[in-house]
Amino acid sequence: MTEKTATLSTDGNEYDLPVLPGSVGPEVVDIRKLYGQSGKFTYDPGFTSTASCQSAITYIDGGEGVLLHRGYPIDQLAEHSTFMEVAYLLLHGDLPKKNELDKFSKTITYHTMVHEQLVHFFRGFRRDAHPMSVMCGVVGALSAFYHDSTDITDPTQRLIASHRLIAKMPTIAAMAHKYSLGQPFLYPQNDLSYTGNFLRMTFGVPAEPYEVNPVIERAMDRIFILHADHEQNASTSTVRLAGSSGANPFACIAAGIACLWGPAHGGANEAALNMLREIGDVKNIKTYVERAKDKNDPFRLMGFGHRVYKNYDPRAKVMQQTAEEVLKELNLTDPVLDVARELEHIALNDDYFVEKKLYPNVDFYSGIILNAIGFPTEMFTALFALARTTGWVAQWNEMISDPEQKIGRPRQLYVGATQRDYVPMDER
Ligand code: CMC
């Protein structure tokens, strides 16, 4: 079969560029040899049209609102699976058999404690430090403690580091929360599930027994599943870029956490909840919808719209259902949920939002759930980081094992001064 090509013509020359197919989704034009042949780079700020790698982990069709992990639709995973199983799936490529899942869960459980010396790190932070600043520092510091899993050329060490990161993130996130409250840290209790253990370390106190509520445990587990991976987003690309230089996995994940912290990425769920609170009452929605449509007003409906999804974010549907379940279980009537439901209804029937294909995204309902469970808003992004660590380590492992992967080194369109001679100070 003849290879498919695309032709680029410039300056009277033509260049045939290979077109590579994926298993599903858009083909890519392979421009790797273009510079060598033509002396020209391609220009794509924000990488909106550039595939930076090949990957077999996650597939998104934004137009159709499809999200698949290793081929499995996110709604099926959210309904039938557990976060541990999804972590295995992302890391190993297939759903585990029962004995494989049992072994994996046991291994993760085995690594949940952090080195006791690491506990002292927390005391160096101010009590009012943002949990994400603590997470960046403490996760980066893990590399100082686990030397035996930082040789990235050894697949066994890579796997151990991946297990350690997945296992220790809940412990570190819960400690960040406890530290902000001035409450004692709780050690993991390994007869609990991954998520139950996290809830106990976050909300339990040593003086009282802590009963894990199975409805909340399931809701939290589902939130973790919904955040586990999302293809080559900014933080995942950051992890890959950091890893491409051979940096150790703990340093790479710390870089991912730093990127995720930004309000345009992991911080939007906090902003969505604040917006719903600001709207406050169903009767105020119209005013805010008008403001969102007004080009002269910077206000946007937070939790609406997405760079990739131009249809309903499939994660938002599961989030809405989970919000209803959690509020019912906790016997809470949060007026914010009424505002969210009505706002969604109005926006989805408004020409502006319909034409621009703006739908609720994963962040629209998640803040309501996390708030109901008892998390302060500053913890929202830390929970996202905890869950996304599974995706990050899966993507990092895939990259290191890919023989075609090189150190990440984008080029640029230089628009600065051309060469000029140094001017002595007294002549400037
Ligand atoms: N409210 C009102 N108008 C909007 C909104 C919104 N939330 N989002 C986009 N638009 C309009 C925007 O004004 C623009 O209009 P025009 O074409 O007339 O200039 C058009 O829709 C396209 O917007 P864009 O900013 O060019 O689209 P983008 O793909 O660059 O931005 C986005 C995507 C998520 C940054 C944006 O939709 C947004 O700011 N949403 C609110 C913040 C939010 O909820 N972020 C969470 C994203 S999901 C988290 C994750 O998956 O990591």
Automatic annotation (TrEMBL):
Q: Signal peptide location in the record?
A: none
Q: One short Pfam family name for this protein? A: Citrate_synt
What CDD domains has UniProt attached to this entry? EcCS_like (cd06114)
Q: Which reaction does it catalyse?
A: oxaloacetate + acetyl-CoA + H2O = citrate + CoA + H(+)
A Gene Ontology MF term for this entry? Answer: citrate synthase activity
Keywords attached to this entry? Acyltransferase, Transferase, Tricarboxylic acid cycle
One cellular-component annotation, GO? cytoplasm
Residues of the active site are 306, 363
Q: Which GO terms describe its biological process?
A: tricarboxylic acid cycle
Keyword Ligase (UniProt): no
PANTHER family named among the record's database cross-references: CITRATE SYNTHASE
Entry protein name: Citrate synthase
* Organism the protein comes from: Sphingomicrobium lutaoense
Its ancestry begins with: Bacteria, Pseudomonadati, Pseudomonadota, Alphaproteobacteria, Sphingomonadales
